[in-house]
Amino acid sequence: MAEQSMEQMFEMLKVHAKRIMGEKYDVGQVTLDRTFVELGIDSLYLTEIAFAVLAELDLYVPMAKVARAKNAREFLELVAVELNQ
Fold first, then answer.
1. What is the 3-state secondary structure (H, E, C) of the chain?
2. Whole-angstrom Cα distance, residue 66 to residue 82?
């Protein structure tokens, strides 16, 4: 598994979110620290986006952990910890 930077993973997350959410997803509003709620990403969307990102990275993270992430930074930090184990 290739090492991924936070910036690369953030871009990956945005691509998957746009593909899954389509018109409901405004890429211009996305930052690492805006909450998923502010971005209109509910728990179902978050689960789908997380599965897509984790599949691309060939990584498993329990959805209970993913559900606790409030924003992209928290989710990506969780992924980074799992990648480094």
1. CCCCCHHHHHHHHHHHHHHHHHHHCCHHHCCCCCECCCCCCCHHHHHHHHHHHHHHCCCCCCHHHHHCCCEHHHHHHHHHHHHCC
2. 12
Low-confidence spans in the chain with pLDDT less than 70: 1-3
Q: Dihedral sign, CA of 84, 49, 11, 32?
A: negative
Domains of the chain are 6-83 (1.10.1200.10)
d(CA 38, CA 78): 20
Contacts of 71 (CB under 8 A, 6+ apart): 32, 33, 34, 35, 36
Amino acid 3: pLDDT: 62
Predicted confidence at residue 1, as pLDDT, reads: 42
CA distance 3 to 83: 8
